[in-house]
Write a structure and sequence with these properties.
Blueprint (H helix, E strand, L loop, with lengths): L1 H12 L3 E3 L5 H18 L7 E5 L5 H8 L3 E5 L9 H10 L4 E7 L11 H10 L3 E6 L11 H4 L3 E4 L19 E3 L41 H34 L18 E4 L3 H5 L3 H10 L6 E2 L6 E4 L7 H22 L9 H4 L4 H4 L10 H5 L28
Parallel strand pairs: 2-3, 2-4, 4-5, 5-6
Antiparallel strand pairs: 1-7, 6-7, 8-10, 9-10
Helix pairs in contact: 1-7, 2-3, 4-5, 7-10
Cofactor: pyridoxal 5'-phosphate
Keywords: Oxidoreductase, Pyridoxal phosphate
Protein name: glycine dehydrogenase (aminomethyl-transferring)
Length: 408
């Protein structure tokens, strides 16, 4: 089954060989970079230790590169969220004798497909480096394109995101890595049960061991294998299409109420998008965490907050939510925007309002005393559908002013 899964992942990604050993996304990043490092060392290029990372890459990328002993060079993005190609070119040429790799997320965390991704890969290759693609956003590629087709040399996949293993709750996860043929000999093995690449390369010079177990979190691999087998090529492609469609549907619904920060050249987003909340601090004293807290009153856990851009929410609906649920979330954000407007218009106090007071758990709502300038009903049931189904927050905000110091 492991061999079949590895071969299926090769077909999906356009790579020549896979290692199922890394048991997390970050472990996959580390493994992939170590494969690149082993490749350079096999060629006598021990001095290649520079890793270029755009600001639109995933946050674990620089940490993984640092763990591999690499020097990190950061490059910026343009106004549309794409990597600044000229800045990248200058960085690559300036470090051409030491360049080891580029770590790039595709589509980027800005929610756009890099229009110049093929040129980006060529720049790195022309200057002696390898391209590491962070595959955490593979949900927007399956059946439509692939890391191998684009020009990446190595990529990890979060099976706990794109391929059905439950995501969240602290794990377990899987981050297998796929590589092109020239990197396959260096895939990790295991001292007890030799593994190497799937399919096995003609020669093998494994970098060592990445996980304590030969195939990582092996017991959850059947989930991804079964999912891929049952979905088939059409089903997997449809999943990516629906994920992209859902994100664009939500972005279109919300664009009249919140600025959508980045879009592609055709005005669309990928499978995720960013709404900008920064302006509300000046107009209503509202911070992103206030919106995140108020979402809890509507029964939602907040999307990714203040990353990759501070003061924003990054929304990734995926393919598995119904249109009714997408609409419920959009309606919630629109309702919260109306609550912000009440503060902007002076109808609600800028310091004591339903967003600053959120979330409102049962213990607060049922207390004998209620000193807030809005009703308990408005706090608990801002939307009619909450009366029939609501996921309640279990705790509210501490009222102790020392809370302001309890941040990391």
């Amino acid at each position: 089954m492991f061999n079949n899964l590895g071969e299926l992942l090769c077909t999906i990604t356009g790579f020549d060989s896979f290692s199922l050993q890394p048991n997390a996304g970050a472990a996959g990043e580390y493994a992939g970079l170590m494969v690149i490092r082993a490749y350079h060392m096999s060629r006598g290029d021990h001095h290649r230790n520079v890793c270029i990372i755009p600001v639109s890459a995933h946050g674990t990328n620089p940490a993984s590169a640092a763990m591999c002993g690499m020097k990190i060079v950061s490059v910026g993005t343009d106004s549309k969220g794409n990597i600044n190609i000229e800045e990248l070119r200058k960085a690559a040429e300036a470090n051409k004798d030491k360049l080891s790799a580029l770590m790039v997320t595709y589509p980027s965390t800005h929610g756009v497909y890099e229009e110049g991704i093929d040129e980006i890969c060529k720049i790195i290759h022309d200057n002696g480096g390898q391209v590491y693609m962070d595959g955490a956003n593979m949900n927007a590629q399956v059946g439509l394109t692939s890391p191998g087709f684009i020009g990446a040399d190595v990529c990890h996949l979060n099976l706990h995101k794109t391929f059905c293993i439950p995501h969240g709750g602290g794990g377990p996860g899987m981050g297998p890595i796929g590589v092109k043929k020239h990197l396959a000999p260096f895939l990790p093995s295991h001292p007890v049960v030799p593994t190497g690449g799937i399919p096995a390369p003609e020669k093998s010079d494994p970098l060592g061991t990445i996980s304590a177990a030969p195939w990582g979190s092996a017991l959850i691999l059947p989930i991804s294998y079964t999912y891929i087998a049952m979905m088939g090529s059409k089903g997997l492609t449809d999943a990516s299409k629906i994920a992209i469609l859902n994100a664009n549907y939500m972005a279109k619904r919300l664009e009249k109420h919140y600025p959508v920060l980045f879009r592609g050249v055709n005005g669309t987003v990928a499978h995720e998008f960013i709404i900008d909340l920064r302006g509300f601090k000046n107009t209503a004293g509202i911070e992103p965490e206030d919106v995140a807290k108020r979402l809890m009153d509507y029964g939602f856990h907040a999307p990714t907050m203040s990353w990759p851009v501070p003061g924003t929410l990054m929304i990734e609906p995926t393919e598995s939510e119904s249109k009714a649920e997408l609409d419920r979330f959009c309606d919630t954000l629109i309702s919260i925007r109306e609550e912000i407007a009440e503060i902007e218009n002076g109808k609600a106090d800028i310091h004591n309002n339903v967003l600053k007071g959120a979330p409102h758990p049962p213990s607060l709502l049922m207390a004998d005393a209620w000193t807030k300038p809005y009703s308990r009903e408005y706090a608990a049931f801002p939307a009619s559908w909450l009366r029939t189904a609501k996921f309640w927050p279990t705790t509210g905000m501490p009222e102790n002013p020392l809370y302001s110091g309890l941040t990391c």
